[in-house]
Amino acid sequence: MTRVTDTLLTALAPAVWGSTYLVTTEALPAGYPITLAALRALPAGLLLLALTRCLPPRAWLGRAMLLGSFNFALFWVLLFVAAYRLPGGVAATLGALQAMMVIAMARGWLGTPVRAGAVVAAATGVLGVALLLIGPEAALDPLGVAAGLGGAASMAAGTVLSRKWQPPVSALSFTAWQLTAGGLILLPLALLVEPPLPPLTPLNLAGLAWLGLVGAAATYALWFRGVARLEPGAVSMLGMMSPVTAVALGWIVLGQALTPIQALGAIIVLGAVWAGQRANRPVPVHPAARAV
């Protein structure tokens, strides 16, 4: 497949993740973030394991647990802490810093060169997310800010390490390993710190099915496929599609107002994502240099 196709398929994942806020607020019971995260990850992971029939070898168990923690367990817990203690716009803007963290981590762990254009695109994307989401009620809670930065760093580390550690299996199997590991970490934590869930309604079950089957199993398979094919900096910029989708769904489905500043922010984010793809392209090697 062409690079454009790989980029579009990978971008589909964060675009779908943008529906998480809408589904969580409209279709799931409030006050059970870790339990719902475990129910999102573990059943999806086990289903993919059953479909792929591919268990991680013993040498990969530690890596699968670490990646499952970074990409799911730690990331989702810190994300919920930030969401509870900060206005949504502030939390999302801190999360957008992930793109800049990926550039630094990829340099240290993968030896990827730091390109000025990629840094500028990432910084511009953060500005766009801030314009898109931060309102006059924005406030900074120290613990919430720490959780937001920690969540961004966790996802950034998971993205770079997922590129560094590529098992000889399909993206679907790699996703299954990580989702299952993340769910196994989240489940005992949920049992310890949260009360039991109330009886789930059909709407609750539909919301969990969407977040688990589509928002986790299918989309993370596309995401890890993209991580294996595209540069880490390019992949991380695509994550900024999530807040754009979230705002668009709020406007279309919930009738929320869309101000001119927010529209400008969305345009800036989309422009930064496009620029980030160009800035992170590998430099082609001249045939004569390759022959030498």
From TrEMBL:
Keywords on this record?
A: Membrane, Transmembrane, Transmembrane helix
Transmembrane intervals:
32-52, 64-84, 90-110, 117-136, 142-162, 174-193, 205-223, 235-254, 260-276
**UniProt keyword annotation of Transmembrane helix present:** yes
User: Where does this polypeptide localize?
Assistant: Membrane
- EamA domain span: 8-133, 143-274
From the record, what ranges are coiled-coil?
none
One Gene Ontology CC term in the entry: membrane
What name is this protein filed under? ABC transporter permease
Native organism is: Pseudoponticoccus marisrubri
